[in-house]
Amino acid sequence: MTDSNTDFIRSAMPLCAHLGVEATEASPQRVVLTLAWRPELCTSGGLLHGGAVMALADAAGGASAFLNLPDGATGTSTIESKTNFLGAVTEGTVVATAQPLHVGGMTIVIETEVRHGDRLVAKVTQTQAVLRPRSG
Questions:
Q1: Can you say how many angstroms the Cα of residue 92 is from the centroid of all Cα atoms in its chain?
Q2: Regarding the domain with residue range 4-131, which homologous superfamily does it belong to in the CATH classification?
Q3: Domain residues of the chain, as ranges?
Q4: DSSP assignment, residue 59?
Q5: What is the pLDDT of residues 5-25, one digit of tens each?
Q6: Closest Cα to residue 31, out of 84, 67, 4?
């Protein structure tokens, strides 16, 4: 059974439903998403694929940006993302925690930490474009 935060994330980003992402928190101050290790999300040797980790972090950052949109904005889109991988994951659940660093009228910058237990496995900084309706 999912809760309203997970329903929001999965309906806004269908990839999250496909990956099995769950949301434990979704507020303008902080978004927390989880992804369970599964063999079909791995590379050789049972390592959680970096793309799965990045998808989780991008979803957390995108949700954080969306929850911080200024008045009149209609959405957000990732225009830059920088990931540092710091460790491998071979079991369990990874947790992505995203927080805004800058909320402006044109861009929103989000920092996301991905952890496996207490261990930091990835650090992501992304810039999201603020989308507005086209005039004319």
A1: 18
A2: Hotdog Thioesterase (3.10.129.10)
A3: 4-131
A4: H
A5: 999 999 999 999 999 999 999
A6: 67
Segment 66-71 mean pLDDT: 96
User: Per-residue pLDDT for 136 more than 70?
Assistant: no
DSSP E strand boundaries for the chain: 22-26, 31-36, 75-85, 93-103, 107-116, 119-131
Q: Edge-to-edge strands of the sheet including 119-131?
A: 22-26, 31-36, 93-103, 107-116, 119-131, 75-85
Strands 75-85 and 93-103: unpaired
Task: Return the structure tokens found at 102.
Answer: 């800058």
The rounded percent of the chain whose pLDDT value lies above 90 is: 96
pTM of the model: 0.94
**Where do runs of H (alpha helix) occur along 34-100?**
50-67
